[in-house]
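Example 194, ligand zinc ion.
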Amino acid sequence: MEKNFVIVDNGHGVETKGKRSPDGRHREYLWCRKAARRLVEVLKSKGIDAALLVPEETDVPLRERCRRASVLSQGRRAVLVSLHNNAAGDGSCWREAGGWSVFVAPNASPDSRRLAALLFRRARSADILGNRATPPCGYWTANLAVCRDMPCPAVLTENMFQDNRADVDFLASEVGLSTIINVHSEALKEYFGV
Ligand SMILES: [Zn+2]
């Protein structure tokens, strides 16, 4: 039987423009790298093998990320999770929208959709959905290349809003980080049936 494997992608690189809180204390690329490393550790501690797709600090082009994912998923039952932070505006001021959401691409496989639904249910239980309506299925569909072009099931999570003050406080806290990591690790355990 093929071994379960999680490929963790962290959005953006150090040179990506914007992608920070209005006061500059939160940066998406940094938070996502920290979260990605933690998720890999936690999954391994639960017996699920995992690896970072982008260990470097820079923004790695999509084609290269797809190539790496093909190599990593060879002979494994692999799934990819791309971690991001959402934003309602251009980052120049604080906004009202807050909360957590999960996305799949329009061409998503049944496995991608199943994982997205499991993640949504965990996020709902953890009470991190915020103040926006969610589609009845629990996940959003968007033409995201990192999901659309991957060689394995793939989802993208928008982990709170980096231009919502309460969300940024939550993201900076240990409780916030561990809550979000737990949502992912528990949903992945359920997905693999372990
Ligand atoms: Zn992002």
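Summary: The two ends are 14 Å apart (CA to CA).
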